[in-house]
Write a structure and sequence with these properties.
With 263 residues, the chain is mostly beta strands. The protein has 2 domains: 5-108, Thrombin, subunit H, CATH 2.40.10; 125-256, Trypsin-like serine proteases (Thrombin, subunit H), CATH 2.40.10. Helices cover 6% and strands 38% of the residues. It is built from 3 helices and 16 strands. The strands form 4 sheets. Strands 5-4-1-2-3-8 form a 6-stranded antiparallel sheet. A 6-stranded antiparallel beta barrel has the order 9-10-11-16-15-12. A two-stranded antiparallel ribbon has the order 6-7. The protein is globular, with a radius of gyration of 18 Å. The protein starts with 11 loop residues before the first strand and ends in a 7-residue tail after the last helix.
Length: 263
Amino acid sequence: MKINDREIVFAVACVRFFYKEGGTRDDDGASGFFYVHDDDLYFITNRHVVVDKEDCHCPDELRLKLHKDLDNLHDNGVYPLPLYDNSKPCWLEHPSGKDKIDVVAVPVDKENISEFHVKPFTTDDLPQKITIARLSIWDNLTVIGYPKGHYDGSHNLPIIRSAAFASVPNVPFKNEPRVLIDAQLHDGTSGSPVILGPGIYYNTNLGMLEHRNGYALMGVHSGEFDRSETELSLHNVWLAGLVPDIISQNSDYFDSLGCELEN
């Protein structure tokens, strides 16, 4: 069942990092969101959020701050999400991209998290009926996350930013399953869901404009396009259709786009 658009913020969580040798680091963080596939629950974020050896970033656990009571948004708690099981990584990566596709799915124990209120995205939230050919440079995008750890701490609610396509949306950027967006985003929004809002597209079959109502989970924000030129305000977004590929460990969506990855 599709999430009510007023509940989207409860799919998103602020991420803090826990290290067995050093504890929790409150000066650094990221974002991510919950997703249900075949009745199993996952936490979706970037690969560089769970491991980035170049930056010596190898947390043992993610700490998610979540709501316990929607009637009292001040009532929150921390849910620990282990990243390793006897030194074996718990997260799933895309079989066609491995570390090249910056998206992972971390399994979540539904019973252990039951005391918290989360509203996960589902396959109904993916743009299944919105083919990539119907996307337009005029479409509105929204990014929900925790830039540099800034958010409504009193109610544990994220920051919501507007964005626009910066690359042609119906052409996978550089023949990879991603697009670029133009937005004022910062460290901490890595792993944020990128939401496609209502819009108008041209139906070539009918030869007329049609309205697209509601929203769709467009992709996963993955940081700046060029960290050496941050003034460009360009950011990578991996397409959300990759998430079922990752969980099911196939390349159906990836192959349907005709994409390739640079070596």
